[in-house]
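Saturday, quiet lab. Running sequence design on the structure tokens for the scaffold JK sent over.
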């Protein structure tokens, strides 16, 4: 087939874009034009979208975001492109064509691209990526079935986590769910502390404000409070019957952590999700197989299925990539 490609967000019919995402079995809010607007409103983020048409029918869409941690030369060294969920298409042929156009467009804009898959791919589904220079990397995720109901869900939680939940229940914690930005400021403070502890950069606060402004009903803020003060705040994405924890900021105080607030927090979020008819809790990542990962061990204690969704990687600038790794190592050293 001969496809037409549009690469300007303003040229793509938004209703057609939203309809395609909604009807595609693997569509998510992270593929949507509203997410394009979030990226566009965030400092040092640049959205990149490519849509494939056959005649007037939309056959595939690829939404990426080029992220920089700094301006100027440091920004050039830190520029990376993320494609959440991969391109959505009607066929492998469209996937290959979208990736070919993407490679031409992203050249000079990003050091590397990472495709973070939401679903396992069969070997034949990987071929369009391989044909366009992408390398497959194994990566795990955990999906919790919420349709089993509270009783079965509770039985599926490991005994150590249940003890932590029960301990926290007697320590006066409160739980709240918000659709507005009342927790944004404290969330960003908590998130900053969390990411400084693990020495990783975080998006500008404007990113989270833009999520609130653009995603409306597809967003929830969850908060665990102690004496009226939030100690854990998470922003989550709602995709139909699926709930995805997106970013979370939590406590550092060892005395508070002894009360097991994190154990209770995730339990309360999943209990809310079950009560509100959600079918799946998607943990959005559990590290690489074969490597010890404490976060994966923690997540698995809430039950759920470990799945291998994989990621794709393509390095556009090998020399700059080597320099970036050195620069990131140095940045983490000075942060520590």
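Result came back. Writing it out in full:
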């Amino acid at each position: 087939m001969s496809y037409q490609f549009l690469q300007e967000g303003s040229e793509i019919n938004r209703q057609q874009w939203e309809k395609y995402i909604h009807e595609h079995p693997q569509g998510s809010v992270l593929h949507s034009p509203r997410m394009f607007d979030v990226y566009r409103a965030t400092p040092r983020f640049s959205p990149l979208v490519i849509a494939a048409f056959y005649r007037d029918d939309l056959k595939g869409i690829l939404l990426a975001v080029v992220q920089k941690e700094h301006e100027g030369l440091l920004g050039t060294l830190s520029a990376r492109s993320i494609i959440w969920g991969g391109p959505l298409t009607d066929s492998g042929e469209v996937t290959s064509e979208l990736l070919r156009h993407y490679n031409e467009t992203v050249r000079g804009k990003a050091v590397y691209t990472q495709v973070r898959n939401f679903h396992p791919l069969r070997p034949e589904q990987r071929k369009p990526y391989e044909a366009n220079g992408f390398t497959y990397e194994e990566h795990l995720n955990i999906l919790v079935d919420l349709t089993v109901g509270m009783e079965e869900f509770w039985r599926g939680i490991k005994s150590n986590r249940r003890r932590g939940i029960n301990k926290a229940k007697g320590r006066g914690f409160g739980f709240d769910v918000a659709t507005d930005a009342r927790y944004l400021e404290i969330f960003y403070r908590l998130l900053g502390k969390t990411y400084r502890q693990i020495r990783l950069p975080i998006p500008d606060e404007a990113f989270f404000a833009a999520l609130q402004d653009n995603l409306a009903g597809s967003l929830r803020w969850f908060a665990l409070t102690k004496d009226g003060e939030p100690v854990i705040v998470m922003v989550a994405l709602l995709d139909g019957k699926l709930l995805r924890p997106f970013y979370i900021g939590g406590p550092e105080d060892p005395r508070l952590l002894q009360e097991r607030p994190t154990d209770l927090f995730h339990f309360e979020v999943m209990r809310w999700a079950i009560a509100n008819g959600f079918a799946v809790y998607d943990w959005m990542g559990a590290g690489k197989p074969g490597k010890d990962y404490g976060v994966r061990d923690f997540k698995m204690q809430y039950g759920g299925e470990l799945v291998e969704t994989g990621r794709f990687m393509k390095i556009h600038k090998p020399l700059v990539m080597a320099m970036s790794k050195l620069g990131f190592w140095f940045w983490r050293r000075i942060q520590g």
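Notes for JK: Residues 327-336 have pLDDT under 50 and may be disordered. The radius of gyration is 21 Å. Ask whether to fix the surface positions before the next round.
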